[in-house]
Amino acid sequence: MIKSIKRSQILEQNSIFNMAFFIHLQEKLKELYREFPADTDEVNIQMKPDQFIIKANNKTTIVTTQTIKRINFTPYTIDLFTSELDFDFGLYVEKDLVKLLQYIKQDSLPNGKKLLVYSLIEENFNELANSTSKKVAYEFLKQNSQQHTRRTKQIAKRSYRLMKIIGDFPIRLTSQVTPRWLYNLNEGEFEEFLQKCKDMNNLENHFAGAQ
User: Fold this and answer.
1) pLDDT tens digits, residue range 142-170?
2) Residue 144 CB partners (closer than 8 Å, separation 6+)
3) What is d(CA 6, CA 80) in angstroms, rounded to the nearest whole number?
């Protein structure tokens, strides 16, 4: 029997998120270290909720974070992993790219199913591109979709990557993670969201194994 993660398990999930942040920070610092100035002995960085402070070569730089808009991804990941499950196998196995492009125009289609449809569009687009060419595949999208081709492809690519992490069946009928929301994330925000989904998925698998 398939179960979604319970809200009572969120505290442990948050600690995993924090650990993921420090691991991600460590990787970023390694990248910066490759460009570390030879004439600098030490760089001290202090991060606070309202500012971060950089000290190097007896100089101090204070950068306020008040204008830096941050997204709290926790409500989105919780909604995604605690949402109702749908077993629409017919949609899951749909391979007709024309039909899939028509599905995303249906306002009544739940967000979770739309995300699945976009993911299937990306999968079938790649198959078409491999058997013909990317130019032909893009022209096919342009001719059969009333939406902007670039926008459709961006959402499809992001939905596909998301489904690779959370699984595409059964379908998670999320209400907060929408195609529009995914599209509006910048690259850094999207990668951060994917990382939090990976952490949540690992936590869900951990509890499923324990049960």
Assistant:
1) 999 878 899 999 999 999 999 999 999 99
2) 97, 98, 101
3) 12
Whole-prediction pTM: 0.71
Contacts for 211 with CB less than 8 Å, ≥ 6 apart: 3
Range scoring the smallest mean pLDDT among 103-112, 123-132, 166-175, 194-203:
194-203
Q: How far apart are CA 77 and CA 196, in angstroms?
A: 7
- Specify the 3-state DSSP secondary structure of 85: strand
Backbone CA torsion sign across 92, 96, 99, 101: positive
Residue ranges of the domains in the chain?
71-210
Residues 54/44, Cβ–Cβ less than 8 Å = yes
Amino acid 132 reads: T
